[in-house]
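Dear Dr. V.,

Thank you for agreeing to look over these. As mentioned in my earlier message, I'm a first-year student in the group and I'm still getting used to reading structure tokens, so any feedback on how I've presented them would be very welcome. I ran two proteins. I've put each sequence directly above its structure. The first is here:
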Amino acid sequence: MVTKWKSFSHSIIIKVIFFLLAVFCLTGAMKSFIDVVLSADGRLDIVFEDNYFASRSFVEETGAVLEDLADLIVKYKNEEHILQGRHITDEQLRRETYNLWMNYEFYSTRVSDEENFNRYKELYPDEVARVRDRLIKEDLKKYHSLRQRLEEYDGLLYYADDGEHVYSSSKKIDLRQLQSYPVFLAVENYRLDFHPEEIEDNNHLYRLLNRFERLELENGKVFIAFTEDFLNARIEEWKTAKGRTENGLWQVAGLLLGFLLSLVYLSVTVGRKSFEDKEVHFLPVEKIYNDVNLVLCTSIAVLWVALIEQLFDNLSQAILLITLPVVAIGLLLFLSLVKHLKKRTLLKHTLLYRTATLVYDAVSKVYASGSVGVKIILIVILYPILVAMTFYIFPVTIGIAAWLAFKQVKLFNSIKEGVERIKSGDIGHVIPVSGNGELATLAADINSIAGGLKKAVDNELRSERLKTELITNVSHDIRTPLTSIITYVDLLKKEEEPQKAREYIETLDQKAKRLKTLIDDLFEAAKASSGNIPVNIEKIDMVSLLTQGLGEVNDKIEALELDFRLSHPRDKVYVAADGKLLWRSIENLLSNIFKYALKGSRVYIDIEEQGNEILLTFKNISANELNISADELMERFTRGDESRSSEGSGLGLSIAKSLIDLQQGKFSIQIDGDLFKAMVTMPKYKT
């Protein structure tokens, strides 16, 4: 018994030693890594650089000098140029005064920013002048600072020239001599040349090339050279920085290796009293749910990062005090997860898993039933239980519930707003529908109602418009012959010559017949549309009806030199229709062809079987341009000629459609250029 106790106590001591070793190794590695990053200014890639000329430091220092010289000759030129403000553009002034002129009363979104700015300059020149003076002072300060920075370089030789202004490190500088220095850089004629050539192998050279592409050295030239003393000092600094970074990273690697070895030992032995023990033992504090454990680990890591950022200026002194407890707590929580992994309870010992298993069956039954009332009752009962069970992560639970509730409230408010808009007259409004829930179904139903209401209103408006046009057209068409009759009656009263009197009487007879035709057509259209015409459905041979009808109007066909082409099946085709009404409809279509078809053209009449229906199609070429839609042409008193000079009443197509509708048929027309097509579909006669 004493031997077992000693073995157990020795095991605990060893674990504690390895635990402390792991904590100190990881803490030391983190501190060393942060020290390396800070000392190297974040440039850890210095360890992969072979020499100073292949380093990022060389490229950035050279690029800074090149950019400074380019600013001197391109942007600032000289002090007089800056004081005169010639380098300040309207674009820069507009940008600097944006917050001023955009708030004035004259500002308008209907014009461009440039026009608004020009207006501002006219009204407030003093304010623009003050901004301009401020920019000049700022640029003058930058100019002197830039020149001072260049002069402070010890061992830098340079020459910059834009053809008018020259800057050089010495009044007497030999450009040819510059090329003999260890490092020489030349910008001339849009070219960038290096010496020595090994600079071109620098992996960071793209940074210098990017700076060069942004410089506007159109006519300028820049030459830069570094003396050997200047380079030797930089090379020593680079070597020191590289050595310091390499030593620091090796130290980090060694500490991480110690941490990993300690962690492996702890992971193998944690939860067991000895190597022979196969049972995993948990401490009371380790009964915490694994998902809660992960949340705590994440929170501790976030807290550590926040504290590091907060104490960045005094990081060297504070990092050990901050990191030691964080690493210790995090390692304890991690080892607890390792225990559950060994016992294969990593997933099962989670709060979410326990909660899901409890409510899974109930939720499945509710959704299978499809009862809205049961769903609501279940949510009301289970949600408090769910919050109580997920107390450690209750913000997540509340967040999910709030998000789901927000979606439903948003959809309800959208439906409510949509109903209000539809109620106020905006029947074209469509409520956005998303998902497949009850509210989404309700929104879809309301949209259907609104769509039907809109269609009914549109039909009513169209009906009112047609009534107005009908009155206008009827008045016009009836007034024309009636006016002629009145005029000729007056002439006839005064006429004494018998011959002219007979001519007047003949004209009166024509106008009276024309007036009678209009009135008869109007009454027939009214009767057809009202459905007061008796319909006697019988078996009608469509081919025979058409053949006989075309024979009756053969005189008109020959007079207009029309070529009728009739196409029909070989077998007889019977339709269920009223013979008189069907012929009246066809007669109206033929009359329409006689009035508007191009003289000497072909007219095609096709009879086709389409299942339980027979399709009769009339096709002809219009003599006049058909600059009217098919829907407009179907309206009453509408003619194919806008001048309304033809003898038609404009009721033929309308009457034909009404008569076909009375016989349970379908009538439609199509217009394709000057081609007019009328289609009559009648039900096939069933024996």
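The second protein is here, in the same arrangement:
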Amino acid sequence: MRSYAESLPGVVFATQNLFTCSQDSQEQMKEIIKENQLNRVVVAACTPKTHEGIFMDTLTACGLNKYLFEMANIRNQDSWVHADTDEEATAKAKDLVRMSVARADTLHPLEEKKIPVIQKGLIIGGGVAGMNAALGLADQGYDVVLVEKEAELGGLAKRLTATIEGANIGDYLGELVARLTKHPKIEVLTNALIVGFSGFKGNFTTEILVGPERVRRKIDHGVVILATGADEYKPTEYLYGDDPRVMTQLDLAAKMEKGELEDPQTVVMVQCVGSRNDENPNCSRICCQTAIKNALHLKELNPDMNVYVLYRDVRTYGLLEDYYTEARQKGVFFFRFDAEDPPAAESSADGMEVIFTDHVLNRKLQVSADVLVLSAGMRAADTEELSGILKLARTAEDYFMEAHVKLRPVDMATEGIFVCGTAHSPKLITETISQAYAASARAITFLSQANLTLSAVTAQVEAEKCASCLICVRSCPYGVPRINADGVSEIDEALCHGCGICCAECPAKAIQLNWYEDDQIICKVDALLEGVL
């Protein structure tokens, strides 16, 4: 491959390394660039998704414009997928290298602009996630505005009593609210509604209606953390709301906490109510551990009580499995049911008659329960209007969607906006706290900089070719293009994500994407078909 690369037009030096991305290889690359006075660099290695930035930094350290770099992905696109065909894989690697060298010849320097950063954060949501995220920013010295639509802070956690490990959530919540409201760097706005949003990373402006009087305020800030939370699903199944003996797990926990639960002799719990169905196909994650936590509490109140848990799958992941084992040891009965044959419940004078199929006995069983407890799933808070204002993507279940589940787990697709807690997905309170700190840490990577450098990979409009057809306006997923006073499409490079959709859709070819211009793509095709056509 080295000798082949040296034979390509324009190549004056070629070498090979075992680990090109290692620190030693980077230092060696710097020396080679300086000694040979190279003005373009092509690396044939792994994916640019994770390593392109490393090599670009190397070019910058040598005084070269970082956009004079091209990378051939001969790992993911070649050696990994053609591991059993060495000769064909080598031929393909040559094609990929030849295409990259051809493209490198068309590259030209691009200049990146810098924009100042407003060192203030906006937190949307005043639950456990939002308050921890706010403290995460404020404790690092940054001003924070926390916006909560309700009159009080706390969110769904106000209905929670204790964790399965035994920590008192009420006490924790009280301490958290006290820390938050006393913090000199945090401004709390309750009864607040977001009605407008504009700007770009480091320079956002949000319009808010505050208080019962709906006073309009404009807040300039550099980052946004979404912590809108979630709610408990309100069941329509199993006579919930019609019979006081039917309640959710949160209702049961509250009654036990307040001592309002009359001495039941038999309690039946039904899992997956409002989850793992056609309307909400995903698991709510919290239901199994909540049922086991409450079952253990019931057994502490009365060891002779009969507690039945009717489940589809017990999902006490991680160390929570120990509590499931403890519940079995203390005499909690677990019966599995199929989704096609769920338990049925009828109200009677003697109690709630619950009928279900036991797979061991292969027959129907009937239990007369004093209390029927439904493990209701979690549903995302109503964020349809908010997501429309901020132009953010949501999942089919209305949770906010992260940019990448592994590489950017708390980032939204729009840079400078982050997500945490149950606004992202169902999770335990301990996981919510961890993710809140993760979001605040990511936000600080923006706020800690006086200026942000904008990517030069943005779309540019050739005004003389633009016909104002509005196709770019309609096709852009981020709503960036607009028609200016001259009747020409205009793209703000600070807002542009460089996705290239507008370039592909423009019928007049009036839009070019920097670093992916037409000739820079076509030359690769020509190089691939060299000798074929």
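From my reading of the second output: The two ends are 24 Å apart (CA to CA). The first strand starts at residue 41 and ends at 45. Does that match how you would interpret it?

Kind regards,
E.
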